[in-house]
TrEMBL record:
<dbReference type="InterPro" id="IPR018294">
    <property type="entry name" value="ISPD_synthase_CS"/>
</dbReference>
<protein>
    <recommendedName>
        <fullName>2-C-methyl-D-erythritol 4-phosphate cytidylyltransferase</fullName>
        <ecNumber>2.7.7.60</ecNumber>
    </recommendedName>
</protein>
<dbReference type="InterPro" id="IPR001228">
    <property type="entry name" value="IspD"/>
</dbReference>
<dbReference type="InterPro" id="IPR050088">
    <property type="entry name" value="IspD/TarI_cytidylyltransf_bact"/>
</dbReference>
<feature type="site" description="Transition state stabilizer">
    <location>
        <position position="26"/>
    </location>
</feature>
<feature type="site" description="Positions MEP for the nucleophilic attack">
    <location>
        <position position="155"/>
    </location>
</feature>
<dbReference type="GO" id="GO:0019288">
    <property type="term" value="P:isopentenyl diphosphate biosynthetic process, methylerythritol 4-phosphate pathway"/>
</dbReference>
<keyword id="KW-0548">Nucleotidyltransferase</keyword>
<keyword id="KW-0414">Isoprene biosynthesis</keyword>
<dbReference type="Pfam" id="PF01128">
    <property type="entry name" value="IspD"/>
</dbReference>
<dbReference type="InterPro" id="IPR034683">
    <property type="entry name" value="IspD/TarI"/>
</dbReference>
<comment type="pathway">
    <text>Isoprenoid biosynthesis; isopentenyl diphosphate biosynthesis via DXP pathway; isopentenyl diphosphate from 1-deoxy-D-xylulose 5-phosphate: step 2/6.</text>
</comment>
<feature type="site" description="Transition state stabilizer">
    <location>
        <position position="19"/>
    </location>
</feature>
<feature type="site" description="Positions MEP for the nucleophilic attack">
    <location>
        <position position="212"/>
    </location>
</feature>
<dbReference type="InterPro" id="IPR029044">
    <property type="entry name" value="Nucleotide-diphossugar_trans"/>
</dbReference>
<comment type="function">
    <text>Catalyzes the formation of 4-diphosphocytidyl-2-C-methyl-D-erythritol from CTP and 2-C-methyl-D-erythritol 4-phosphate (MEP).</text>
</comment>
<comment type="similarity">
    <text>Belongs to the IspD/TarI cytidylyltransferase family. IspD subfamily.</text>
</comment>
Length: 231
């Protein structure tokens, strides 16, 4: 792809899944017959334009090994942003270029489809900045105090961020790295770092089904959707 930059997927997979209440990190919990992260990686592997997949796991994590379809880097950090930033550094040190496009995708979003990833790529490749899958808010948005609604917010300009989030490696690393000293406080996604660096990422419509397994009940939901997709 030369000047236009290659496409690389970076999968942060070093979380503990504290909200999911499972006995092991949620990305390794069995869902529809295989570890959750393997569904994620199978979807990314089916996107022909992605030439390389790097999974970032925790330093002591021996649960995931490299295959012909993905590499593993044991450089996960204490926050998602640190894991991503370390993964970007790893890529730069191992053959990637600053001009390459990186699609950062949560291991925990195992319901992503090749069609969604391709839609993001199609929208972002011609763009100077890059962007993310996201959804307009389907519900009324409340401000809460002590368990009571105290205000209803205008929601027409609010979107729910999903992943993948697609940016060029160099600008993304430059946007994230300055936040390392502060422990990446408030850096919950790549687009947020790009916004603070003065960019306006493209919002590309995602899907309600591209949920992030976060809470205990999400495992059953993900399993039902995966089984539905298989039929
Ligand atoms: N230090 C971390 C924290 C999170 N992640 C990854 O980032 C993705 C999204 O994060 P989240 O859903 O918050 O995962 P956890 O941090 O594992 O969950 P929790 O916040 O409930 O502990 C997951 O694939 C997770 O493995 C990571 O690579 N490194
Ligand atoms: C990146 C993300 O998936 C966008 O919605 C999300 O922010 C990551 O999860 P967290 O719970 O905010 O860590």
């Amino acid at each position: 792809m030369g000047e236009t930059g290659r496409l690389i997927a970076l999968v942060p997979c070093a979380g503990t899944g504290s909200r999911a209440g499972a006995v092991q990190p949620k990305q390794y919990q069995s869902v529809a017959g295989r570890p959750l992260v393997e569904h994620t990686l199978a979807a990314l592997a089916a996107v022909q334009r992605i030439g390389r997949v790097l999974v970032v796991v925790a330093p002591q994590d021996a649960q995931l090994s490299a295959t012909a379809h993905w590499e593993v880097a044991r450089c996960g950090g204490t926050t998602r942003a640190e894991s991503v930033c370390n993964g970007l550094q790893h890529l730069l040190a191992h053959g990637a270029h600053a001009s390459d496009w990186v699609l950062v995708h949560d291991a925990a979003r195992c319901l992503v489809t090749p069609a969604l990833v391709n839609a993001l790529i199609d929208a972002c490749l011609p763009d100077a900045v890059g962007g993310l899958l996201a959804l307009p808010l389907p519900d009324t948005l409340k401000v809460a105090r002590a368990g009571r609604a105290v205000q209803t917010l205008e929601r027409s300009d609010k979107w729910l961020a999903q992943t993948p989030q697609m940016f060029r490696l160099g600008p993304l690393l430059s946007a994230l790295e300055p936040h390392r000293a502060a422990g990446f406080a408030g850096m919950t996604d790549e687009a947020g770092a790009m916004e603070l660096a003065g960019h306006a990422p493209l919002l590309v419509p995602g899907s309600l089904l591209n949920l992030k397994v976060t809470w205990p009940q999400d495992f059953a939901l993900a399993e039902a959707i995966l089984k539905g997709q298989a039929t």
